[in-house]
Write a structure and sequence with these properties.
mainly alpha
């Protein structure tokens, strides 16, 4: 069970790291669209950042689901083992 806990921990760290990375990237994001004269050069940058954030969101959702699923599997294994030990008669 230890390797499963290690995998769960690593995926959890990756999820948290991705969330932090997304937070740092989104700090540079502006909530307005540059359409005025002289701002044309900013549009590709905004578009690229929006695409990067979308990709990070997809990976973040997947990693979050994996973290929760593995955590539930670990909890189920732990509870099942505890139940089995409780079923054994005392010697």
């Amino acid at each position: 069970m230890t390797p499963l806990v290690i995998v769960w921990f690593v995926i959890g760290l990756a999820t948290a790291g991705l969330a932090l990375y997304r937070k740092l990237l989104s700090m540079r994001e502006e909530d307005l669209i540059h359409l005025g004269p002289g701002e044309e050069s900013l549009i590709p940058q905004q578009s690229a950042l929006a695409h990067k954030l979308d990709v990070i969101d997809v990976w973040g959702k997947g990693l979050t689901v994996a973290t929760v699923a593995i955590g539930l599997v670990i909890a189920a294994i732990y509870l099942y083992n505890a139940w089995l030990q409780n079923q054994q008669p005392f010697h």
